[in-house]
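ok so i was messing around last nite and threw this chain in just to see what happens. nothing serious, just curious
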Amino acid sequence: MLAYVFSESRDQILFGGDSLIWRLLPAAVTVFGVGLVDDLLGLKPWQKLAGQTVAALLAYSAGVRILQGGGYPVGPVWSLVLTVFWLLLCSNAINLVDGMDGLAAGVGLFATMTIFLSAQMDHNQPLSLAAFPLAMCLLGFLCFNFSPATIFLGDSGSLLIGFLL
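result:
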């Protein structure tokens, strides 16, 4: 990983015009914004779900897609349905376990490290570069989120972590 970080091709992956990071940014900002509005003002469940669905559709249009299931290719309609469903499921799963100190961040850290290690074994450096910073942020956050917690994720943080996972 360190060899890749110091290589010349990392700039193209991170800052290239067609980088998935830049294409996914509007979806991530949308899901974070929905959570922030819910934290500050409170949203009805259908409003929150509608905002998350918009973010999932933005991610799909950015290229985040489920293209096969069980080794079999899925059609474009099923790809859209499965991708949106999966993003909503993951976002809300992490949001639902955010009730106890350290639980959501711990689950997110474990999942992110699993993704990172899997990406390393598959030599998928762009995924590694996306997963590792999230894992380190969650690790730093956990220092202050264990009982007694002094900071919390809130809906904005937990929805974003689940969405990114």
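not much to say yet. Helices lie at 2-5, 10-15, 20-40, 45-62, 76-96, 103-121, 125-145, 154-164.
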